[in-house]
Amino acid sequence: KQEVTQIPAALSVPEGENLVLNCSFTDSAIYNLQWFRQDPGKGLTSLLLIQSSQREQTSGRLNASLDKSSGRSTLYIAASQPGDSATYLCAVRNSGNTPLVFGKGTRLSVIA
Amino acid sequence: EPEVTQTPSHQVTQMGQEVILRCVPISNHLYFYWYRQILGQKVEFLVSFYNNEISEKSEIFDDQFSVERPDGSNFTLKIRSTKLEDSAMYFCASSDSVVYSNQPQHFGDGTRLSIL
Hints:
The structure holds two protein chains of two kinds. By secondary structure, chain A is mainly beta. Helices cover 0% and strands 56% of the residues of chain A. Chain A has no helices and eleven strands. In chain A, strands 2, 4, 5, 9, 10 and 11 form a six-stranded mixed beta sheet that branches. Chain A has a five-stranded antiparallel beta sheet with strand order 1-3-8-7-6, with no helix packed on it. Chain B is mostly beta strands. In chain B, strands 2, 4, 5, 6, 9, 10 and 11 form a seven-stranded mixed beta sheet that branches. A four-stranded antiparallel beta sheet of chain B has the order 1-3-8-7, with no helix packed on it. Chain B starts with a strand and ends with a strand. At the A-B interface, strand 4, strand 5 and strand 10 of A face strand 4, strand 5 and strand 10 of B.
């Protein structure tokens, strides 16, 4: 059974810092991996989707990498801003039509 | 940009009552999902729906739950005889196609269900 773990559970950084959020999964035979942002009491906003054949995806200040063989993904946020404060969720899909399996998330606070 | 919309945003119901949570997926999407998130816990899969039938369901999705696509736009989750432990945020999601695998799942803002 696929398990997804995110470390750290919470992170507080000063504005302007670059930071890395970690995601690991137990079954490396994934189909794709998706990073989401969740603001308090709100829904999930998809940030990046990495297919199993890809190594990384970039969108603006965000870069997500995937090392499938070791069961790891990282989300790199450059030049963090207070508006980046949210919970970041990692989710994997084991095959094309299976549901997403989520980690518990990393709660990020960027202090001005 | 097209969005998944969910109504209501907050539902308060007495234990034992039935609730229907409503979702309007993105119009050209073919796959629909319900997930839930109990406060402080992970987002958990409930059910997926394709071609007017359930394609997969989790252990959580027992006889208390049902889904329906009553028309060409709505996708509903019905919970019968609600229990206190059904209190959670319920998310609807949709995706275009699993054949074209670069399509992410798009989520709605959720319905917060509170059982009293």
